[in-house]
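Researcher: Batch entry, complex prediction.
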Amino acid sequence: MKKFFKIIYTSLLSLILLISLTSMGSAETTVSSEIGFIFNTLFFLICGFLVMFMAAGFAMLESGMVTSKSVSVICAKNIGLYAISGIMFWVVGYNIAYGIPEGGYIGKFIPWSDASSLETGYSDASDWFFQMVFCATTVSICSGAMAERVKLWPFFLFAAILAGIIYPIVMGWQWGGGWLASIGFSDFAGSTLVHSTGGAAALAGIIILGPRLGRFDRKGKPKAIKPFAASSIPLVTIGVFVLWLGWFGFNGGSQLSLGTFEDAVAISSIFIHTNLAACGGVVAAAVITRVAFGKTDVIQMLNGAIGGLVAITAEPLAPSPLSAILIGAVGGVIVVFGTRLLFSYKLDDVVGAIPAHMFAGIWGTLAAPITNPNATFSSQLIGVLAINIFVFVVSYFIWSIMHNMFGIRLSKEAQMTGTDVTETGVIAYAIRD
Amino acid sequence: MKKFFKIIYTSLLSLILLISLTSMGSAETTVSSEIGFIFNTLFFLICGFLVMFMAAGFAMLESGMVTSKSVSVICAKNIGLYAISGIMFWVVGYNIAYGIPEGGYIGKFIPWSDASSLETGYSDASDWFFQMVFCATTVSICSGAMAERVKLWPFFLFAAILAGIIYPIVMGWQWGGGWLASIGFSDFAGSTLVHSTGGAAALAGIIILGPRLGRFDRKGKPKAIKPFAASSIPLVTIGVFVLWLGWFGFNGGSQLSLGTFEDAVAISSIFIHTNLAACGGVVAAAVITRVAFGKTDVIQMLNGAIGGLVAITAEPLAPSPLSAILIGAVGGVIVVFGTRLLFSYKLDDVVGAIPAHMFAGIWGTLAAPITNPNATFSSQLIGVLAINIFVFVVSYFIWSIMHNMFGIRLSKEAQMTGTDVTETGVIAYAIRD
Amino acid sequence: MKKFFKIIYTSLLSLILLISLTSMGSAETTVSSEIGFIFNTLFFLICGFLVMFMAAGFAMLESGMVTSKSVSVICAKNIGLYAISGIMFWVVGYNIAYGIPEGGYIGKFIPWSDASSLETGYSDASDWFFQMVFCATTVSICSGAMAERVKLWPFFLFAAILAGIIYPIVMGWQWGGGWLASIGFSDFAGSTLVHSTGGAAALAGIIILGPRLGRFDRKGKPKAIKPFAASSIPLVTIGVFVLWLGWFGFNGGSQLSLGTFEDAVAISSIFIHTNLAACGGVVAAAVITRVAFGKTDVIQMLNGAIGGLVAITAEPLAPSPLSAILIGAVGGVIVVFGTRLLFSYKLDDVVGAIPAHMFAGIWGTLAAPITNPNATFSSQLIGVLAINIFVFVVSYFIWSIMHNMFGIRLSKEAQMTGTDVTETGVIAYAIRD
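Model: Structure tokens for the complex:
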């Protein structure tokens, strides 16, 4: 009887223990994974809308930097490319980057919600949104450089190819788990994948396109103030501040999760490093232009912020604050001298996108091993070369084809009249006294 | 003895089980409901500040669209109407929409915190904030259409009535659980409730107000570029991007909660559908204006984004991405042809608010049953008719009374001098060479 | 045997209870503290990026308020001061305010992540970010007042001292747990600590600097419209809306945590009080300028919003909505009459920063005891006097030294040519017809 009682007793005890532990365990797991799912998804959405707003930052930066006869067109380009990028990244881009999902086809994900489960850790749609705004950023980068002489619809066509095919291929190499990821290439938020890609595409474009009419004199010196003066410095300024704001989403969101203590700590570090790198870029550009060229060039200070931000983007987590400032400062220096380098080759990058995004992106990516022991210089170099060369060559090829097929450069008359009038029929600033 | 022991034993066991399950249960529930409360409240606040920022978007869109002699006044209107809306929605609006709470009176909620409890699932104040910015959006919509010839203070008076009474009545019909909700009307984030309401109020206003001095020639054709040119396209552009950004809060926040896996998935889908609809609107407007009228009209592209966003607002959750693009594209088409429709009736909507908000809002609301099986076309039609007619008639009545009592139209002299000088005494752009 | 069995039984029971309770307890505690940590950190980051964006708001407000010959310089100042503030707050500021941590030294926190633990409740880096943007806000406030005649680099030098030393000292008095905190001074988000500090530093600056060339006629009346007209009212408007947006982060984030039901409720109340106070400021300024001076002054409406926001910042939690409106309205009134007060002393505050930030800040801080029973008027008065006098005297001293060492005022020629040309070599608005 006692024995029987003991068995009952022990088994009951075990049962209680089992039930309480299991139920507790499962309860916890359920709660945790659901809470984590919500945190991760919310974080993608917040960072996503910050990066989405960078489209406005580019629009303002570029509107302010072009001459007042090409502002409406640059606005049309920026709103248009963001729209085109969103659609193209849905049609093919996401699938090219991540691979066609089971039973998948171009433009899939109908409806989105089906694909998400607690196990993935975040809503697929929130990830799509976050990746899409990165894609759009890449395209935004290349719009400014070619301003004031490129035809609108060929630009839109290139934007569609860049957003739907070129960027997704490069993105797949690394973030889609491709060959660059395999060899240990490290690019946290896309100094090379996003910024150099945009810059290299722009470089190919301006080489084929040629400089604006009358931009360089016979000796090859740029005609600085008139008639190529930036139309509005405050618009450039708000553009840069908006980009700076968006960059917290760009780099912070690239942690890809907010579900743990470690994530929260990491993201906070990313925020301050991102901020300090931009600070370094601004100060470096201010000091250099003042010391070397006499005046404190506000445009270079503003582009210096971008250079600093791009430079830290490859590795915003590992650096110390001091390293972040220095990495950003070098980015600012690169912007100043990169601008002059392009001048010396008579390359007309209207907004300075190539120094700020391509050159500073190369620097940031190569600098990652300095602070991140998991990155190696050789892998970084391979990644930088592979992406820049691939994007440049493919872009050069596409621009060439378009150039030969239907022309990409506006006529002399159109440039003299102003592209706003000829392309959109809308004058940008109609200010009457 | 054994029996007694058994009883003790069993009861103790039950007690343990009860305690452990209860305490676990209650602990979980407590944690969950508190975490859910925080998530929901945080989400209302985030979406609320995004929608609040739409006030800046409208201010910039309208500043850029009016002529340079009426920019200061439009700024005064926009900052003023947002302030008035906030106060009026506190004084009476919230209570009209949701019903006077127990022991309540006009302008109650002192202090707010008393009303909130874990059971409600979110802080009352966070809901008030979110609903208030919707109210302000409604008023913002109607400010641009009447620009350049309406008197400032009569406009403020109308803004107070629209924010405090008209919109809250309509809001109560649906979101306050009124008769439209009962008949199954479906308007997720307010294509009709917010956007058509603002548009219909504006339509009534411009009919009574008449067009700007000299806007139409004798044959009724609008004088397009000069002297009615938009003062600043980049300001319109940043305005549209800010609105686009805010719309993630507008539509996303209308999910009203972020406390579960399902909420997070739904909100993510809403984000991408909202974005894709705007993309569709931009591309449609670009293609149509280029193909039909020769030039790629940047203003129509920008307004096309708004049209797409308004169209998807009635049902941003149910559509597939492709449906979202198409719904938005139709919204963009409606904007382009709606603008011309108003022209043909010599109705002078300075910023295109009526096509973008009222017409596209009607389309979006009627289109909801296509993607949402719970919505019926008949209910949608009733809702659209009821709200548009109610708002139009009441607004027409109020504008008429004001017109007869003290006049709402600025004098010929004031319009020729420029409303900035006569109304605020501050020139908008003082640019010296 | 039974006794032995009973002992085993009882001890086993206790063990189960102990295990289940402990494990449940610890599990819960772990989950809760980690979730709380994530919420708090996320909230600091969200509020931090909102406040960061206020730098853009100040840049636009000031760009719009200065004459068109000094816009590039004000942009350079604003991007520069934000960069300098970020670096200086890292180098010394944070440690001055909070005390040097164990083993700490100037510019420590390498790497940041080491310092954070679940016990602190939030990531240290997220707190640093949030505090840094407050510091930058303080410096932003003082940049506009001295516009159009202060030399750029002396201003940057002062910015570094204000961000790195003066503000951190004042901050340490209260938020670092210093003597003001001990005597019960109450300043929730910094009406005095941030806004009066910025304003008092600016006041000292403009006294030493003197007014712009030709600003006042012989009778001391300001030459209002020409040639000192604000360059762009829409830029002022978007600046104010951006500041208003940022203020939700400024005041909301000062709750310092989002980990509980109570926090979420409190933050929601703060949001609506902050909003209503700004509404009050706008309406008050609109009514007063219309009634007292004939025209509805849009600039005063916009500055009235700032005045209302500054006034509520000292105590945004305790007031009722009605109190918040009234506190803000008084702030708006103070801005209108404070502006005229400065005129009467021939003090040339270009953007109205001193009335809006210093005067309204004093009002808000002294008004805190009206709604918060824990604040006393005497403590508030001591805090207001201590901070304003300390900051004014130290700033006066530093500006004087710089004035005597290398001069802080631009030459007559530079002012006539325009500071954009002489300081940055970049014209702000290059608009060609």
